[in-house]
């Protein structure tokens, strides 16, 4: 499978796990197996460097916002947001009752810790520049986060959906590379380097009725002929 084909499949399937489509699944259950070119080097969403790393982490994490195929930014972990007149202070209201895969509720402190980690040069996040205009990140209460900017920026909701700007538990940030914990529609199950990675349905996902399938397996098949043969 060509990289472009695999990416198109990924984008299409991502919509299945999102709001804005019918809540009922046409058919539930089953396993989706996808060929990938290489094994992920690590599973820390803040340190993902390319699509081979990012595609896997997508299923396990959410950001404050997400981007629709038409380019519009819409709520994800943030339920809503408001901004002051000069576009330098943004206030995000979080969804309540969202659980991490370890069973703990996500709060504003997790958002603050995650975004600050993305901004930290030591993390090496490729999305650091996407939110470089964010000067202050503050938890106003357990479900409200305030972001102050160094300059007016109308596209902040889009920036917060960046490649690495995922929200993870503040007390697990140091172990995400091999023990990923997110809020996403699928939970990490196992990784066999050079062979496959498997994620399984998160039965406590905050979007009712999602995801529609039980598990996703990415098999490492770098040769197109081998991947085509496996598909047949």
Protein architecture, described:
This protein has five helices and ten strands, in the order H-E-H-E-E-E-E-H-E-E-H-E-E-E-H. It is α+β, with helices and mostly antiparallel strands and 232 residues long. The protein has a single domain (3-8, 21-231), classed as D-Maltodextrin-Binding Protein, domain 2, CATH 3.40.190. It has a four-stranded mixed sheet with strand order 1-10-9-8, with no helix packed on it. Strands 4-5-7-6 form a four-stranded antiparallel sheet, covered by helices on one side. A two-stranded antiparallel ribbon has the order 2-3. The radius of gyration is 18 Å and the shape is globular.
What would the keywords be for this entry?
4-stranded antiparallel β-sheet, disordered N terminus, 4-stranded mixed β-sheet, globular, single chain, 232 residues, D-Maltodextrin-Binding Protein, domain 2, 5 helices, 20% helix, alpha+beta
For the biggest β-sheet, the strand order reads 1-10-9-8
pLDDT < 50 stretches: 1-12
CATH H-tier superfamily: Periplasmic binding protein-like II
- Count structural domains: 1
H/E element sequence: HEHEEEEHEEHEEEH
Largest sheet: 4 strands, mixed
Q: Helical segment tally?
A: 5
Summary?
This protein has 232 residues and is α+β, with helices and mostly antiparallel strands. The chain has helices spanning 3-16, 51-58, 108-119, 156-159, 224-231; strands spanning 31-36, 65-67, 73-75, 78-83, 89-94, 134-141, 144-149, 186-192, 196-201, 215-220.
Task: Detail the topology: elements first, then pairings.
Blueprint: H1 3-16, E1 31-36, H2 51-58, E2 65-67, E3 73-75, E4 78-83, E5 89-94, H3 108-119, E6 134-141, E7 144-149, H4 156-159, E8 186-192, E9 196-201, E10 215-220, H5 224-231
Parallel strand pairs: 1-10
Antiparallel strand pairs: 2-3, 4-5, 5-7, 6-7, 8-9, 9-10
């Amino acid at each position: 499978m060509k990289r472009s084909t695999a990416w198109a499949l990924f984008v299409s399937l991502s919509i299945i796990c999102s709001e804005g489509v019918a809540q009922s699944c046409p058919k539930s259950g089953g396993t989706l197996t996808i060929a990938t070119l290489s094994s992920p080097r690590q599973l820390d969403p803040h340190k993902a460097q390319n699509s081979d790393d990012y595609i896997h982490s997508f299923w396990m994490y959410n950001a404050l916002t997400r981007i629709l195929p038409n380019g519009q930014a819409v709520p994800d972990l943030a339920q809503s947001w408001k901004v002051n007149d000069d576009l330098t202070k943004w206030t995000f209201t979080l969804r309540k009752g969202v659980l991490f895969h370890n069973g703990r509720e996500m709060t504003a402190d997790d958002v603050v810790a995650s975004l600050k980690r993305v901004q930290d040069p030591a993390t090496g996040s490729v999305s650091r520049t996407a939110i470089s205009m964010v000067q202050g990140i503050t938890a106003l209460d357990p479900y409200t986060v305030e972001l102050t900017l160094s300059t007016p920026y109308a596209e902040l909701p889009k920036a917060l959906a960046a490649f690495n700007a995922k929200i993870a538990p503040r007390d697990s940030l140091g172990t995400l590379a091999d023990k990923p914990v997110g809020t996403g529609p699928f939970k990490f199950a196992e990784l066999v380097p050079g062979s496959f990675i498997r994620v399984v349905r998160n039965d406590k996902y905050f979007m009712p009725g999602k995801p529609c399938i039980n598990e996703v397996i990415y098999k490492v098949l770098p040769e197109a002929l081998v991947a085509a043969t496996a598909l047949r």
